[in-house]
Amino acid sequence: MRTWVAPGRVNIIGEHTDYNDGYVLPIALPLVARCTAAPHTDGLVRVGSRQRPGEPVLVAVSDLEGARARVPGWSRYPLGVVAEFTRRGHRIPGVDLDLDGAVPIGAGLSSSAALSCAVAIALRDLFAPGLTDRTLIDMARAAENDYVGAPTGLLDQSAAMLCTAGHALLLDVRAFAADTAAPRGVEQIPFDLGAFELELLVVDTGQPHELADGRYAERRAECAAAAEALGVETLRDVASATDTTRIADDVLRRRARHVVTENARVVAVAEKLREGLDPRGIGPVLTAGHVSLRDDFEVSTPALDAAVDAALAAGSHGARMVGGGFGGSVIALVDRDRTAAVAESVRQRFADADLPDPRTFVVVPAPGAHRVD
Ligand code: GLA
Fold first, then answer.
1. How far, in Å, from the CA of 273 to the mean position of ligand 1?
2. Domains of the chain (ranges plus CATH)?
3. Please, are residues 158 and 116 in contact by the beta-carbon 8 Å criterion?
């Protein structure tokens, strides 16, 4: 038995840009999903999860497609990856997968891609060692899109596979997606908050967010409609926010404005970090990203807004919701000596608003997926 891990992520900036061929800037979290795997030859996939004791799932490799509708939701992530391997012609003679996830589920921290990618690198090492990271990213995403039914972009799987310790990953999704043989559009940018006495605080609101519930897909469709209204292939092709004023429909216009301004924010943050300047300078850009997600893209919630407002009121340099939205987590950029006070202020704000006690923790950029033993 050997073990592979893959991390969750927070996106520093660049939300709902990935499926519009835009830019993202995630870091990997020190929280990982763990997959212990052993090959065998009895034609069966057995999946167990430490979070679901007593619920092991047993499926014949030959019946993975047929089993999709009857297996429990959590097991569709690993089984979808196995199915994707077989669909692409990689023979899996049988495998045991024991899973253990430390990325909070539904917190917008990409617990699902962490799981899918941990399974994907395990299966690669065991059965298809020639596969590149680029291909595995596509396979893990296809598993989530097709087997789970969550129409995600490439952000989460790319972060889980490609992030490196101490860096933020700047991904130009258009360049990256265009060439699967020799991927371009990937840049590792040093992200050392500690050197500036700063910390990145995560506030998990405890409000679960769910990508397969239709609202994420609705946003994707609105972006596609906005691009069509402007006569471009994707919103990446829109040069400036002024161009979006040509869209007659108010909702589509605001959706487009978010994507166009968010791409510009990613580029601006990447530039500041690349120059090695004090990262406090990116704070206002992060907060502007939140305002755009709240007002133009309409994926925030009262709890996410409360966390951002309280974090800013307590002296954060910037704060924003992360991930797909409709629940999940917030990040705040804080002076290290203010972290506890900011966390306490958020907690107090939640108590005053009768919201459940949030979970807060500090993160540093951690490594991407790898084998641990
Ligand atoms: C989810 C999806 C990603 C991305 C984000 C929003 O995390 O899985 O592909 O679209 O939402 O930025």
1. 23
2. 2-190 (3.30.230.10), 193-363 (3.30.70.890)
3. no
Distance CA(155)–CA(150), nearest Å, equals: 13
Other CB atoms within 10 A of residue 62 CB: 11
Is the CB of 152 within 6 Å of ligand 1?
Answer: yes
* CA distances (Å), origin 247, targets 20, 242, 254, 298, 299: 17, 10, 9, 18, 20
Q: Above 70 in pLDDT, residue 212?
A: no
Task: Output the residue whose Cα is nearest ligand 1's atom 9.
Answer: 153
The answer on pLDDT for 58 being more than 80 is yes
Residue 206 CB–ligand 1 contact under 6 Å: no
- Per-residue confidence band for 127, with pLDDT thresholds at 50, 70 and 90: very high
Q: How many whole angstroms from 91 Cα to the centroid of ligand 1?
A: 31
What is the pLDDT at residue 179?
83
Q: Is the pTM of this model over 0.90?
A: yes
